[in-house]
Specification:
By secondary structure, the protein is mostly beta strands. About 0% of the residues lie in helices and about 50% in strands. Strands 1, 2, 3, 4, 6, 7, 10, 15, 16, 17, 18, 19, 21 and 22 form a 14-stranded antiparallel beta sheet that branches. It has a seven-stranded antiparallel beta sheet with strand order 5-8-20-11-12-13-14, with no helix packed on it.
């Protein structure tokens, strides 16, 4: 029987190691978060091609990555994504998106390499249901003719076209959706992924049925722990993080990513020190016991 556990994540930022403490039910467990693999504020004005790849139609200006800045439909879905595939990590980034007539969002567990138009707004706001998505797409804003309304769409790749791709719409956290910059957090522990917006949980995804590096089942839970659906999917065990848009000018900023793993030596929660950058995050997760053997996974081309 599945249980949803309330987790409190305390992040201690140090020069070498971040240690995260969380509570699973009544038991205390530690998550170790390592040194940054990516810590990019875009202030240099140049794309770090060792860490990121970018499709056409982008620019780095005023310390931000800009996508779709020329208002040209030719720049359909210009993407910006990590060069490597990841799982078992803690990532943060900021997105601001114009409220226009199409869509924007980000995706997790996408294949490595050039994506070039494959995201297509997940299943919500996609211009053609015959086009394909990759990874797990989070449509933060949908086209006027989409069914999203005031919600956020989550689409799971299942190896087919968008029209057949399993998807679910979740409620936007309060305060998100006016086009202003929002802070995102992704806690990826392999078979459990939680996404937060402005410190408020969006959804938790439990993946199962791992075979040949691909998960075949996904269950989505809302912040209260209610199940929103279980789907047949085709989700990679590790993948890149992708940002996409179509005729919806967006900016991406302050991207960080560090490996995370379950600490197999449970003890008292680690208290943030007065000199650390501390963040307390309330999240929901599933099956923490099953994650006890989680390891950090990173693949670099």
């Amino acid at each position: 029987m599945k249980k949803i556990f309330a987790i409190v994540l305390a992040v201690m930022m140090t020069a070498v190691l971040c240690v995260t403490a969380f509570a699973a039910s009544h038991a205390q467990t530690k998550i170790s978060v390592g040194a940054f693999l990516i810590n990019e504020d875009f202030e240099s004005g140049e794309l770090n091609t060792d860490l990121f790849k970018a499709w056409s139609g982008y620019k780095i200006e005023s310390g931000k990555m800009h996508l779709g800045h020329s208002n040209n439909w030719v720049e359909s879905s210009p993407e910006f994504h990590t060069a490597a595939a990841y799982s078992n990590y803690y990532a943060t980034f900021k997105i601001a998106g114009a409220i226009r007539d199409c869509y924007y969002g980000f995706a997790l567990r996408a294949p490595e390499g050039e994506h070039g138009g494959l995201m297509n707004g997940g299943r919500f706001g996609v211009p053609s249901a015959s086009e394909a998505s990759t990874g797990i797409a989070f449509d933060l804003y949908g086209a006027a003719n989409s069914t999203l309304g005031e919600q956020i769409g989550i689409t799971f790749c299942n190896g087919g076209a968008n029209g057949d791709a399993p998807a679910v719409a979740v409620n936007r956290p309060d305060g998100f959706g006016d086009g202003s910059e929002a802070a995102f957090e992704v806690i990826d522990l392999g078979s459990v992924i939680t996404v937060l917006i402005n410190k408020k949980e969006l959804a938790t995804i439990e993946l199962s049925g791992l075979a040949d590096g691909v998960y075949t089942k996904a269950t989505v839970f809302d912040p209260a722990g209610s199940e929103l659906g279980t789907f047949d999917v085709s989700v990679l065990a590790e993948g890149s993080i992708v940002f996409y848009q179509r005729n919806n000018y967006i900016t991406v900023d302050d991207f960080t990513l560090a490996p995370a793993e379950i600490d197999e030596n449970p003890g008292d929660p680690v208290e943030p020190s007065p000199t650390s950058d501390a963040a307390i995050i309330a999240i929901a997760a599933v099956g923490c016991v099953a994650l006890a053997g989680a390891v950090v996974a990173k693949k670099v081309k």
